[in-house]
């Protein structure tokens, strides 16, 4: 079984993790339908370095990794502040 | 002494002082402890061990190396047992597989004569027309297909999977593997050495036994390995496959060990490949290494008078072994680049007729070998039949060449290339931490194999230390060890390339001619390599045949994929032990003691109701009535319970849920619906506010973890200053509900329960029975009710106190099934039952739960477009009260004009309303009040229902008032 470096407790089997998908920005609340559909249904499929959300279930923590999806090499742990964005509120 | 037992040898696996008695096809035989089924039968002169898969041809021993799939047996415990490696034990009752009647008089043995009507691809071509006959053929073929018979009364043995860890895993305990293990141990690495045989030693125990220098080297290696504290040894252990990050499941007689290594040495050796000639499958035709294994491990002579085909130096050594073991060598034929006359010196000196440039072209015999025809062959391997000679014999032994056991290296990302000098594929690239060694790596002499093992360990140690890894030393041999063309096709066929699948030379040529001339296509069309040995004896020859047919090189021709598992694994070993932990609520024991009928619900076991299964409907109805007219209590500890604290708590919940939560007043709760990016309903629950910066929320039992994950992720994504605490397991919860619930609870709490003090949808922390608890006035079932959340340690005490306090009022515990009926009467949905993976809140008739005034929340961008665009809608329906017909069931279809127009999502006979009620997801235009629905029930019976808009029960929620008079409906 594949392993992944958990930034908190080190190398663990992949079954302990939940894949949270690519780091993306959702469309604004009044976005046109095409943008909504694009965000809902399209994903980056070609091999590249992706910023991805990962959740480590035993420790209950989310973290962001930059992973080369071709070689499966994790290149960097990204501080969440780097990917955070503000959501509009009333 | 039994029939063919030779003199005792130095490396025997058998114990000649201990005999065992076993039966085969009802006949009793004697063997020695340590014998395998095949060696024991062979020693008793039984050569006919099985019938082939397709033509039911007689078959015998072939490899003695765990690949003899024509010698499979059934015992009392198991089927498709491999006779070449499975030990005989006392009183073992062995029967053949794939046989009707006895092996000798198999009812299907005449199929062989039909062989020419059953070419490759026959099934694909023959049975698809006419189509209506296909089921008939399918039944017939399925009955005939397969080998052993599974005993359906078999008792599974639960063998837990274990985990193993090491620095270096060495696969293969031959000279290279032993040396590699020692090398790694010397580099201070923790080593696990596994070998599929019951004893370490590999080829040292059969190939090198008579070599003058080998025994001393063997003893030295074995003693050093045994003495090394850094080396653990597992025998009878098959490394099944290589998975990412050095994860290798190892199959042992006690079950699977999942080994995680930092590095792996693959010293898996080679698999001898058969020569292809007419009748090369007759019992008595076997490979040289098989004859050596029989002789040296089991003291069994494969035959008395042999004809040998030798294509490499190992073959000459084997011939000499057999000769010294007492076998009369009638003739040795030798050809190809692997043959050097000097290798035959000992045989020639002993007077054995050695024919250089000759090959075996045919074996003869009825049920067993009686003779062989040999002939000179030209450089291309084509025989000169005019000089053919027939020689009587009872054994035909071939040594045509070797195929690397490279499966695990392929799986680790290694690459192989055909070596024109060695005439075999060898590894050319591999990861630094997965290193081949020994014969698999094209290294043949004993000294070189040891050097190669040492070198492999050294390079692996360097890689593990993070240092530079040197180029591998070249220990490969510089001469051929195989013939590039071990094939003598015969015009009459029966020249088998794949003995598992009964494929002959012509089948492969035919497949290629029909256009399946790519290795992967040829494999699928002819099924070459798809039998139980997975091509271990057939792939290399098939590639050679295809390459020659196409007039191209071996590398151009390519190889098929070597997927795990390397060797068949028992399903019970793969299943292992059930490793699903159950969760128990703090009141679990009480349910068991009070007749709770438990059902599996995710990771929990929850009472459906309290009573006997046979009385379910009656019990549920009486529990419903108890709640509606008195008071009931249900354990809802499985609810997700999450605390959200911090200045941005409101922002987190406003962004995560469809309804506004930021304007919620402290002390109140609000329904909470969560959707995904596409606007589809994911979960629901209740959000309550305790203070400006403090919320407490619930999620459904199955989404407790998912809700926690989502909220914690959003907190990071949106850069919020907030803490999310999952208290699901730490708190228990119960719902005390019914018109009398306030009366039960009031004496036990320290807070005012009046409508003014704790209003409907209110929430407050309180002391219940003196313990801290949180009270939520929520009404899932539609009566006055109190959810009481309290630490798991105090929950059972509170439960008991409420039961005691409620006893005079007739309090009833109720289960999940009862709760489902109650909430259905109230028209409340259950996410996942009344919604599916495409249902949005508008379709679920909950537009009130979507606050599009909020500029953004998860799902808003989609929901803004979906509003008013729903194609279907969840409706309430009622059915006639007097109908005695069986009710439709959940997922039964709503039919209009003969086509599907919806489905029932929930249905029950309402004890309160006295008629059947339900929810259905129907096409939008059927969602009008008064619309008649036709529901197709069991057996196709059409049942009438009517859409209603009003809530079935207490539409104005009057009964949820805490100050309402305690009346019965």
In short:
Chain A is mainly beta. In chain A, 10% of the residues lie in helices and 39% in strands.
Structural notes for this entry:
The complex is a heterodimer of chains A (90) and B (969). With 90 residues, chain A is mainly β. Chain A has a single domain (3-27, 35-82), classed as Folate-binding fold, CATH 3.30.2270.10. Chain A is built from 1 helix and 6 strands, in the order E-E-E-H-E-E-E. In chain A, the strands form 2 sheets. In chain A, strands 3-4-5-6 form a 4-stranded antiparallel beta sheet, with no helix packed on it. Chain A has a two-stranded antiparallel sheet with strand order 1-2. The longest helix of chain A has 9 residues, at 33-41. Chain B is of the alpha+beta class. Chain B has 7 domains: 1-153, Ubiquitin-like (UB roll) (Roll); 162-271 and 403-464, FAD/NAD(P)-binding domain (3-Layer(bba) Sandwich), CATH 3.50.50.60; 305-400, 3-Layer(bba) Sandwich (FAD/NAD(P)-binding domain), CATH 3.50.50.60; 496-569, Arc Repressor Mutant, subunit A; 588-630, no CATH class; 638-728, 2-Layer Sandwich (Alpha-Beta Plaits), CATH 3.30.70.1400; 822-857 and 866-958, Beta Barrel (Elongation Factor Tu (Ef-tu), domain 3), CATH 2.40.30. In chain B, 23% of the residues lie in helices and 27% in strands. In chain B, strand 8 (162-171), helix 4 (175-186) and strand 9 (191-194) form a beta-alpha-beta unit. In chain B, helix 11 (505-513) crosses helix 13 (539-550), helix 17 (616-629) packs across helix 22 and helix 18 (649-656) crosses helix 19. The model of chain B has no long low-confidence stretch (mean pLDDT 94). At the A-B interface, helix 1 of A face helix 18, helix 19 and helix 23 of B.
Question: How would you sum up the global shape of chain B?
Answer: elongated
Could you give me the name of the CATH homologous superfamily of the largest domain in chain B?
FAD/NAD(P)-binding domain
Measured between the Cα atoms of the first and last residue of chain A, the distance is 46 Å
Task: Please tell me the overall pLDDT of chain B.
Answer: 94
Number of strands of chain A: 6
**What percent strand of chain A?**
35-45%
Low-pLDDT runs of 5+ residues of chain B are none
Backbone shape of chain A = globular
Strand order of the largest sheet of chain A: 3-4-5-6
Number of domain modules of chain B: 7
Quickly count the helices of chain B. Answer: 23
Give the C-alpha Rg of chain A. 15 Å
Order of helices and strands of chain A: EEEHEEE
Number of helices of chain A: 1
Largest sheet of chain B: 7 strands, mixed
What oligomeric state best describes the polypeptide chains here? heterodimer
User: Quick one: biggest sheet of chain A?
Assistant: 4 strands, antiparallel
Q: By CATH's scheme, which homologous superfamily of chain A applies?
A: Folate-binding superfamily
**End-to-end Cα distance of chain B:** 94 Å
Helix content of chain A: 10-25%
CATH architecture of the largest domain in chain B: 3-Layer(bba) Sandwich
């Amino acid at each position: 079984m594949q392993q992944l470096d958990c930034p908190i407790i080190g190398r663990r089997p992949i079954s302990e993790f939940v894949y949270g998908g690519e780091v993306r920005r959702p469309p604004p609340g009044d976005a046109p339908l095409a943008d909504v559909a694009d965000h809902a249904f399209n994903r980056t499929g070609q091999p590249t370095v992706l910023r991805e959300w990962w959740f480590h279930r035993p420790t209950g923590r989310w973290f962001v990794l930059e992973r080369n999806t071709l070689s499966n090499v994790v290149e960097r742990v990204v501080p969440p502040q780097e990917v955070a964005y503000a959501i509009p509120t009333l | 002494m039994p029939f063919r037992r030779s003199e005792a040898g130095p490396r025997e696996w058998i114990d000649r002082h201990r005999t065992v008695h076993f039966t085969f096809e009802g006949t009793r035989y004697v063997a020695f402890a340590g014998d395998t089924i095949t060696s024991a039968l062979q020693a008793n002169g039984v050569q006919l061990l099985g019938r082939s898969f397709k033509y039911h041809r007689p078959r015998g021993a072939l490899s003695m190396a765990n690949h003899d799939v024509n010698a499979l047996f059934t015992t009392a415990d198991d089927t498709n047992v491999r006779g070449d490696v499975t030990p005989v034990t006392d009183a073992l009752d062995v029967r053949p597989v794939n046989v009707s009647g006895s092996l000798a008089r198999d009812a299907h043995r005449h199929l062989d004569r039909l062989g020419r009507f059953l070419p490759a691809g026959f099934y694909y071509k023959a049975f698809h027309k006419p189509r209506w006959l296909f089921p008939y053929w399918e039944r017939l073929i399925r009955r005939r297909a397969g080998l052993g018979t599974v005993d359906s009364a078999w008792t599974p043995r639960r063998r837990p999977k274990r985990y193993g860890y090491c620095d270096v895993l060495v696969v293969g305990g031959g000279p290279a593997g032993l040396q590699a293990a020692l090398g790694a141990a010397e580099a201070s690495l923790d080593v696990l050495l596994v070998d599929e045989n019951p004893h370490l030693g590999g080829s040292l125990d059969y190939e090198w036994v008579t070599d003058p220098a080998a025994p001393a080297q063997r003893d030295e290696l074995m003693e050093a390995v045994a003495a090394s504290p850094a080396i653990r040894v597992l025998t009878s252990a098959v490394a099944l496959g290589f998975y990412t990050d050095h994860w290798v499941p190892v199959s042992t007689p006690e079950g699977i060990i999942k080994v995680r290594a930092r590095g792996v040495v693959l010293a898996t050796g080679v698999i001898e490949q058969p020569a292809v000639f007419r009748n090369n499958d007759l019992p008595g035709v076997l490979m040289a290494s098989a004859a050596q294994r029989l002789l040296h491990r089991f003291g069994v002579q494969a035959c008395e008078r042999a004809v040998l085909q030798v294509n490499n130096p190992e073959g000459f050594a084997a011939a000499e072994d057999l000769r010294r073991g007492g076998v009369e060598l009638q003739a040795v034929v030798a050809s190809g680049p692997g043959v050097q006359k000097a290798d035959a010196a000992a045989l020639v000196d002993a007077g054995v007729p050695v024919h250089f440039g000759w090959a075996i072209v045919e074996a003869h015999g009825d049920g067993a070998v009686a003779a062989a025809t040999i002939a000179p062959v030209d450089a291309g391997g084509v025989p000169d039949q005019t000089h053919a000679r027939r020689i009587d014999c009872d054994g035909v032994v071939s040594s045509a060449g070797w195929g690397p056991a490279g499966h695990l290296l392929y799986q680790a990302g290694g690459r192989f290339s055909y070596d024109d000098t060695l005439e075999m594929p060898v590894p050319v690239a591999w990861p630094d931490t997965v290193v081949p060694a020994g014969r698999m790596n094209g290294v043949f002499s004993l000294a070189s194999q040891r050097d190669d093992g040492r070198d492999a360990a050294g390079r692996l140690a360097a890689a593990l230390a993070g240092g530079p890894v040197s180029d591998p030393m070249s220990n490969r041999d510089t001469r051929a060890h195989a013939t590039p063309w071990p094939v003598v096709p015969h015009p009459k066929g029966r020249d088998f390339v794949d003995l598992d699948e009964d494929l002959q030379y012509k089948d492969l040529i035919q497949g290629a001619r029909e256009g399946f001339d790519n290795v992967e296509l040829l494999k699928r069309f002819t099924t070459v390599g798809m039998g139980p040995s997975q091509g271990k004896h057939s792939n290399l020859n098939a590639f050679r045949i295809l390459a020659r047919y196409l007039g191209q090189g071996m590398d151009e021709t390519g190889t098929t994929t070597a997927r795990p598992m390397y060797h068949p694994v028992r399903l019970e070993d793969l299943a292992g032990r059930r490793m699903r932990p159950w969760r128990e609520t703090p009141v679990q024991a009480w349910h068991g003691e009070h007749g709770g009928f438990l059902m599996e619900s995710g990771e929990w076991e929850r009472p459906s109701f309290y009573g006997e299964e046979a009385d379910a409907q009656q019990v549920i109805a009486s529990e419903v009535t108890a709640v509606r007219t008195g008071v009931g209590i249900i354990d809802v500890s499985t609810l997700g319970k999450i605390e959200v604290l911090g200045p941005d708590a409101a922002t987190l919940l406003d962004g995560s849920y469809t309804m506004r939560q930021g304007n919620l007043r402290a002390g109140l709760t609000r329904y909470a619906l969560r959707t995904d990016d596409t606007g589809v309903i994911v979960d629901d629950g209740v959000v309550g506010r305790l203070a400006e910066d403090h919320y407490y929320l619930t999620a459904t039992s199955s989404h407790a973890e998912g809700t926690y994950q989502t909220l914690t992720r959003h907190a990071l994504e949106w850069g919020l200053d907030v803490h999310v605490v999952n208290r699901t397991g730490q708190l228990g919860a119960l719902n005390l509900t019914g018109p009398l619930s306030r009366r039960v609870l009031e004496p036990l709490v320290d807070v005012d329960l009046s409508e003014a003090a704790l209003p409907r949808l209110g929430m407050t922390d309180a002391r219940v029975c003196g313990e801290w608890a949180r009270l939520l006035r929520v009404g899932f079932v539609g009566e006055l009710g109190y959810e009481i959340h309290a630490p798991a340690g105090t929950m059972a005490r509170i439960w008991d106190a409420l039961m005691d306090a409620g006893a005079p009022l007739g309090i009833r515990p109720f289960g999940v099934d009862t709760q489902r009926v109650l909430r259905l009467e109230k028209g409340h949905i259950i996410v996942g039952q009344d919604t599916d993976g495409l249902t949005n809140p508008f379709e679920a008739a909950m537009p009130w739960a979507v606050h599009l005034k909020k500029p953004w929340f998860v799902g808003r961008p989609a929901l803004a477009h979906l509003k008013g665009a729903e194609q279907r809608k969840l409706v309430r329906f009622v059915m006639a009260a007097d109908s005695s017909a069986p009710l439709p069931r959940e997922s039964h279809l709503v039919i209009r004009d003969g086509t599907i127009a919806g489905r029932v999502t929930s249905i029950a006979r309402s004890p309160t309303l006295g008629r059947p009620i339900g929810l259905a997801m129907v096409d939008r235009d059927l969602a009008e009040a008064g619309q008649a629905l036709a529901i197709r029930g069991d057996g196709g019976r059409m049942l009438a229902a009517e859409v209603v808009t009003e809530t079935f029960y207490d539409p104005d929620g009057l009964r949820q008032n805490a100050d309402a008079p305690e009346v019965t409906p």
